[in-house]
Amino acid sequence: IEAFQTTALVDYTKMGVPDNSQVQTHKRNFAFVKGGFDMLLISDSIEMKNPYQSRINFNTMSTGVSLNGNTATATCYNNKELDITVLEPKNAEFDVLTRGLISGNYPAFGDMSGRQDHLQVKNQSDGDYFSVLYPKEAGTKGLSIRTLYQAGSGAAYEIRNREGDAVVAAVNNSVSEPAAVTWKAAGSETLL
Length: 192
Description:
Elements: E1 3-6, E2 10-16, E3 23-33, E4 39-48, E5 54-59, E6 64-68, E7 71-75, E8 80-88, E9 93-97, E10 118-123, E11 127-137, E12 144-151, E13 154-160, E14 166-172, E15 180-185
């Protein structure tokens, strides 16, 4: 862990990710946004040693996954769903795998009906990812997300919850300058 900060509205962690032998560097920022959002924002910046395609994994422990544009919705246990919206890269390529990576390439067992779904998202060899994870009750509305600004390695997104409250997430992803993420709430109160 390279950095950790907590406030009443957001918990933030920055870390280097140990990865496989093909990865030069992998930096990850996590921000858990509270205050009625209960969402996790994840920014990844990956530099590969060779021109291999980078990828990130989301271990959903789910019984099924539906895809709709850049959002994957995992059907989870206990009447829950997990929306995973990949904002970067644009036109993300999802692979839904039914054999999990959590404890080896084994199918789940017992009450999990032989399923241990997980998602892989692929990008160019030196790639940046920006993802929003949002757990919710099955069948309920997810977050509303729109792009406010995008140029080069920077972007800003407005994220609204079911109640209409908004947060702006600004991300600066670049391999030469590891990811830095800032959040601002409506009314210009800086969260982090």
